[in-house]
Design a protein that fits this description.
The protein is of the alpha/beta class and 258 residues long. The protein is built from 12 helices and 8 strands. The protein binds 1,3-dihydroxyacetonephosphate.
Length: 258
């Protein structure tokens, strides 16, 4: 049994404005009011424009829900129009910054090199990166999912020291399972999540590898989360579509009750 605390995180993607965000987080707080939070960590990852509203609500009501950003600039300040920096996110007391989500890799050409710079920017600003990795359908069909994903892990963690690496969250999100309703089997998830932990052990030693939380993401719902979470190297879920329905996300967070 590992003592890693599962992290159930809702990636809202480009959904919910700042007013809708308040209503949504209030619903989550209500749904989780009697929850023993010791056993599960809950986080929401709203669009940048919602973060201040979420912060105010979480602070005001002393909620145990954490929050973070869906992206972070590799730079801390300067002439980078449209970017949002680590110091800005830290000032909003974000806990997390997603790095290298497949939608950013796909639509914004984010490379492993850029993801590595963003991982370092997050650590530099005391934010925990959630580094997303995972293969597309072609790679999966060719049976190269492990090698492909481990190369992304290597790239994202280049020159990241062990004392930082042990706190990172890695999200394995097979691209073919995102938003498609096509969920990886628990065995598929375990195969790659286990391989990721193996690579972390090679890079940093087993003790560090055993501390890192590895999430699965891709069409996670209340009906499939428990089986996925039962796998030894899966320490949480990164939930897209289902996290927009507060009742459904609460059920996902309560996966142990399923
Ligand atoms: O991309 C995801 C979370 O980051 C997964 O999205 P879905 O849960 O909608 O498949």
């Amino acid at each position: 049994m590992s003592d890693r605390i599962p992290l159930m995180a809702g990636n809202w993607k480009m959904n919910l404005n700042h007013l809708e965000a308040i209503a949504h987080v209030q619903k989550l707080a209500f749904g989780l009011a009697d929850k023993d939070y010791e056993a599960v960590e809950v986080a929401v990852l709203p669009p940048f424009t919602d973060l201040r509203s979420v912060q105010t609500l979480v602070d005001g009501d002393k909620l145990k829900i954490k929050y973070g950003a869906q992206d972070i600039s590799a730079h801390d300040s300067g002439a980078y129009t449209g970017e949002v920096s680590g110091p800005m996110l830290a000032k909003l007391r974000c806990a997390y910054a997603v790095v290298g989500h497949s939608e950013r890799r796909q639509y914004h050409d984010e490379t492993d090199e850029l993801c590595n710079a963003k991982v370092k920017a997050a650590f530099r600003n005391d934010l925990t990166p959630i580094l997303c990795v995972g293969e597309g359908l072609d790679v999966r069909k060719a049976g190269n999912q492990v090698a492909h994903t481990l190369a992304q892990v290597d790239g994202g963690l280049k020159d990241v020291p062990a004392e930082q690496a042990e706190t990172i969250v890695i999200a394995y999100e097979p691209v073919w399972a995102i938003g498609t309703g096509e969920v990886a089997t628990p065995e598929d998830a375990q195969e790659v999540c286990g391989a990721i932990r193996g690579r972390l052990a090679e890079l940093y030693g087993q003790e560090v590898a055993d501390k890192v939380r590895i999430q699965y993401g891709g069409s996670v719902k209340s009906g499939n989360v428990a089986a996925i979470m039962a796998k030894p190297d899966v320490d949480g879920a990164l939930v897209g579509g289902a996290s927009l329905d507060a009742d459904e996300f609460v059920k996902i967070v309560r996966f142990r009750d399923q």
